[in-house]
Amino acid sequence: MPKNNKFSANKKYLLISNFLGIKKRHGGVKRSDQIKELFDNFDCISVNPYSPLKKSIKKALYYPYIFIDILIFSIYFFFKGLSFRGVILFSFKSIEILRIINLNKNREIILEGAGDLPIILMNYLAFKNIRFSTFLGNIEYLVPQDNIINYFKSIKYKYSLEIKGYKKASSVFTISEFDSAVLGCHQIKSKTLNYFPCEKDFQQIKEIKKIRDNKFTNKSKGHILLLGTIYNTPSRIGVLDAINYFDKQKKIYPLKVAGFGTEIFKKYSSDCIDIVGSVSEQNLKELIINTKVLIINQIETTGFLTKIIDFNLSGVPIICTSNYFQANNLQKYGIFKVSYSEIPKLLSTNILEKKYEFFEKPTL
Predict the structure, then answer these.
(1) 3-class state of residue 277 by DSSP
(2) CA separation for the pair 283, 41 (Å, rounded)
(3) What is the pTM of this model?
(4) Helix or strand or coil: residue 207?
């Protein structure tokens, strides 16, 4: 049973994340930067040792004893739910991870990130009686995926190994109260550490907010922004659903669609829909400055949309058109849950001029 560990200046830590250093600034990367920044206040080494398969295979030639040790574990866990593919991938791709862990045996391990590989890593550490804490971006077995049997024989085994990993952790930190409630149903104690942008991102957000305060005063100007990514299954489904609605309604509210890979939706471009696609940070900044409202159409999943916090701090009202539970009861932050048909009526009110509360920065 995890105990919520109080991190201490007298301890040494090793933060392992599969998102650190990634250039595409999606929510997982932003969350990783937040966690790294929090641990920068301690004696902590932060690394992303996750490597592509080809590079990992070469590592096996240099560190055969580590490879053999992991392979034995992986074969054993094949009978506990790993797929054959999972055995191969974990045996190779975790060599560099274990090499770094072995070099830092005096440090307590902090796991952060998302995906299947960290689930297996938790079980490996527990199998070796190595102490670790974990920071969740999502509860993975509940996240819709295109291929749920990448590392596991079935979703049943993914579920059991993920829950077992959390139960073996010294402490568990979630990104939302919703996730903590789900873990609580499994008798797993956890603490919610809400997302907040790292200092570098926060400074850019404050600059956007300042420009909007001085410029964006006429609610008849600007556009509605739909921001998402095709690389995240729930977001991709939500973006397409929203595009289809706006394509049918032919209203006077111009919609701009932006985000990683969204150019695949170019065929939906029209007089009222502008598929901007992938954008640079500067172009995204301009889009946010001239946005009158952000549309969120996220299908239900775990975690928490980082863009909700970022846009709240930027001074942009948010309309959630789906049954995304984590957006409930956030009206004081300028976040409203309505159906598509109710958007025109909502925009005719004073929601664009009201002053809303801002989310606060959490601490460990």
Answers:
(1) strand
(2) 33
(3) 0.89
(4) helix
Q: Is 319 helix (H, G, I), strand (E, B) or coil?
A: strand
N-terminal to C-terminal alpha carbon distance within the chain: 20
CA distances from 338 to 296, 335, 347 (A): 10, 10, 11
CB 257 within 8 A of CB 226: yes
Q: Provide the pLDDT for residue 101.
A: 97
Q: How far is CA 126 from CA 26, 122, 167, 296, in A?
A: 30, 6, 10, 38
Nearest to 358, CA basis, from 317, 303, 328, 305: 317
Cα distance between residue 98 and residue 88, in whole Å:
16
The Cα–Cα gap between 270 and 250 comes to 9
From the number of C-beta atoms within 10 Å of its C-beta (0-12, 13-18, 19+), residue 313 rates as buried
- Cβ atoms of 126 and 168 within 8 Å: the answer is yes
Mean pLDDT by runs of 10 across the 364 residues of the chain is: 71 96 88 97 96 92 96 97 95 97 97 94 97 95 72 94 97 97 97 96 95 69 80 75 74 78 86 85 88 86 93 94 91 92 81 89 91
Task: Give 220's DSSP letter.
Answer: T
b/e 206-231 (16+ beta carbons within 10 angstroms → b): eebbebbeeebeeeeebebbbbbbbe
Tell me the residue type at 103: L
